[in-house]
Amino acid sequence: MRLPTRGGFLALAGWGHLAALTVLELFLLVEPTAVALVTGELVGRLAQGVARKDAALGGIGTMLALLGGLLVTGNVLRSASRPLAERAGRRIDAAVREELTARVLALPTLDRVEDAALQTELTTLRSPLLTWTDEGVGAAAVGRFRARLTMAGLVTAMLVLSSVVWWWGPATAAVALLLSRYRVRMWRTFFHVVSGTMPAALRGRVWSEMQSDSRDAKEVRIFGLNGWLERHAEENIADAARRVVEARVALLRRELSVFLGWAATASVVYVAVAVSGEVSVGRVAATIGAVSAMFVISMSDRTEDLAEVAAPAVEAITRVRALAPGLRPPPRPDGGGGGEITLRDVHFGYGDVPVLNGVTLTLRPGEVIAVVGVNGAGKTTLAKLLTGQYAPRAGTVATEPTTYAVYQDFNRYELSACDNVRIAAPQATREQVEAAARAVDATGLIDRLPRGWETVLSPKYDGGGDLSGGQWQKIALARAALAAACGARLLVLDEPTANLDIEAELEAFDRIREVRGEAAVVLISHRFSTVRKADRIVVLSGGRITEEGTHGELLAAGGEYARMFDLQARQFKESA
Ligand SMILES: Nc1ncnc2c1ncn2[C@@H]1O[C@H](COP(=O)(O)OP(=O)(O)OP(=O)(O)O)[C@@H](O)[C@H]1O
User: Fold this and answer.
1) Residue identifier of the C-alpha nearest atom 2 of ligand 1
2) Which of 331, 389, 481, 487 has a beta carbon 3.0–4.6 Å from 436's, enabling a disulfide?
3) Atom of ligand 1 at shortest distance to CA of 111?
4) Nearest CA to ligand 1 atom 3
5) Domain residue spans in the chain?
6) Who contacts 338 (Cβ-Cβ below 8 Å, separation ≥6)?
7) From the alpha carbon of 374, which atom of ligand 1 is closest?
C-alpha cells in the first residue's frame, strides 16, 4: 500500500501519471502561443510573398505542416487531458480510502472504532456535503496542480509579447494575474453560497427519495405521508435551487466584468500595435495570438484553485490519522492456556458510565454458559469483552483467537444465501455450508428460495429473495454452526433466537449444542426455557456476577434468577 507522507496527496496519483499529465498540460498551455507564433510567421511570409509577387513562397509548406501538426496534436491531447486528470484524481481517492480503511481495521478494539469523534470524521468523508463538486481530495489535488502549471502558459505568452515591445508582456501578464485572482475570489463566494445550500438540498433529496424507497414504503403508505414528504422535499429543494440560481447570476455578472476588463486590455495592446508602425504583419498576428492565449489561460476553471473545495476532506483525513494512528492490525488475542477463556476482575464502561465492575468468569472448552440479567445489565458488553472486541479498563481477559458471535443485530448481507452463511468462515466448502444449514434446520427455507443457495437475500435484486425475521435468524445460526465446524473455540449467541417461536428456539439451541465440538458456547437470552438447558448460568446484576450455577442450583438458592424464572413461568401458566 502506498501511503501519503505529510499530506502529500498528489504523489498518490503515481509518478507516471503525474509526468504524463505535466507533459500534456504544458503542451496545451504553450500550444495557443505556439499557434499564434507560427500563424504570425505564416501571415508575415505570405504578406511578404504577395508584396513581392513572389511565386516561390519559401517555407510556407513547412509552416502549414507545423501549424496543422500543432492544431491536431492540441485537439487530440485536449480530449485526453480531462480523463487523465480524472484518473489521477481517482487514484488518489482510492489510495486515501485504502489507507483510512487500513487504519480503522488496525484499531485493536471495537470501542476505538465506535469512538464518536472518529465516526463523525468518517461520516464527513462519506457525506455528499463534503465538497460542492461531489469530488474527493484527488480531484482537488490534481486541480491545484493543473492550476499551478497554467503559470507556464502565462510566462510563454508573456515572452512572446515582450519580444514585440518589452513592457507589453509584463503589463498584460499583470492584468491577467489580477483578473485571475479576482476570479478566484468570485468563485470562492459562489462556493460558499452553494455549500450553504447543501444541507437543504440533501434534506430535500432524502424526503424525495423516501417516497419511492422500498424500506420506507410501508410507513409512507400507511401514514399517508406522501403529500407531506413531497411538500418538504419541494420546499428544501426549491430554496436551495433559488439561492444557487441567484449566486450563478451574480457569478455571470462578474464574469462579464472580467471579460470586459480583458477586452479593454486587449484593445490597448492592439491599439499600441496599430500605432507602432515598425511592427511586421507577422508580429501583429503573434501579438493577437499571445493576448488571446493569456485570455484563455486566465479564464480557465478557477474552482480548482480553491483550497476550500477539499478542505473539509483534508481536515477529516488528518483527524482520522490522529485517531487511528496504526496501519497494521494487532495480533489476535492469545488463548488463555488449555483452551480456557478467562475474565479476571474485569472493569469496563462507556465514557464515564461504568457497566462492568469486577467480573470474573472462566469458560471451559465445550461448556455451554447462559448469561441472564435485566435489560442494560451489560450482557452484550460482556460478550464483546469475551470476544476481544473491547479491552477491559482494568482486570484481564484471556480469550481465544478463533471466536464467532451472533448478535441480535447480526448483518444481513446482500449476498447469496450460500455466501451469507459462508461469511462466518470464508474458507469453508459448499458441503460444509450445507452441513451447517442442516445442523440448524435451515435447509427447508433454502429450498423455498427461487434460486436455492444462489438466491441473493434481498428483494432489491432481480430473482432475489427475502426472508422473515426468524428465517434470517436461522441463517445467522447456520453461521455459528459453520464457525464451530471450522474450528472456532468460542461461540457467542447474543439473543440470536428472539424471533423464533419457542419450539424452534429450543430446537436451534439443541442443534448448536450438538455441533459445538470443543467450542465454549455463551448464550445470552431472556427465555428461561432455553437458558435452563445451559451447563452453567450466570446472573449479571449491578455490573457483577451475582449468581452462578446450574438451573436447579439457582432455583434452590431462591435468588434473582429464581425470581425472574418464576415470573416468566407464571406468565406462561396464566396465559395458557
Ligand atoms: N456503544 C455504547 N455506547 C455507550 N453506551 C452503551 C453502548 N453499548 C451499550 N451501552 C450501555 O451500556 C449498558 C449495557 O448495555 P448492554 O447492551 O451490554 O446491555 P444488555 O444487558 O445486553 O441489554 P439488553 O438485555 O437490553 O440487550 C446500557 O446502559 C447501555 O445503554
Assistant:
1) 350
2) 481
3) 1
4) 350
5) 10-196+246-323, 341-575
6) none
7) 25
